[in-house]
Design brief:
By secondary structure, this protein is an all-alpha fold. It is built from 3 helices and no strands.
Length: 77
């Protein structure tokens, strides 16, 4: 489910998805929020301490804060 932190062009990805939705359709997006807690648990904990994921799977600076989603969508005028 967590995919958007792995997408190179977040705005482009969200806008293509929005165009593919039916009118009044709903799209749910999940990702890791960019906080110190996510850095400690998802990046350092899961990748380096517990080794649940290969090191380098996540880039913390690509984690998305919720307010970024709205700014990333280009609504038609």
């Amino acid at each position: 489910m967590e995919v958007v932190e792995h997408v190179a062009d977040l705005s482009g990805f969200l806008n293509v998805c929005a165009r593919l939705l039916k009118p009044n359709g709903i799209m749910l997006v999940a990702t890791l929020n960019r906080t110190l807690k996510s850095l400690a648990l998802a990046k350092i904990g899961a990748e380096y301490i517990l080794r649940w994921l290969p090191p380098g799977t996540h880039e913390w600076n690509h984690f998305v804060r919720p307010e970024i989603y709205g700014r990333s969508l280009n609504y038609p005028a």
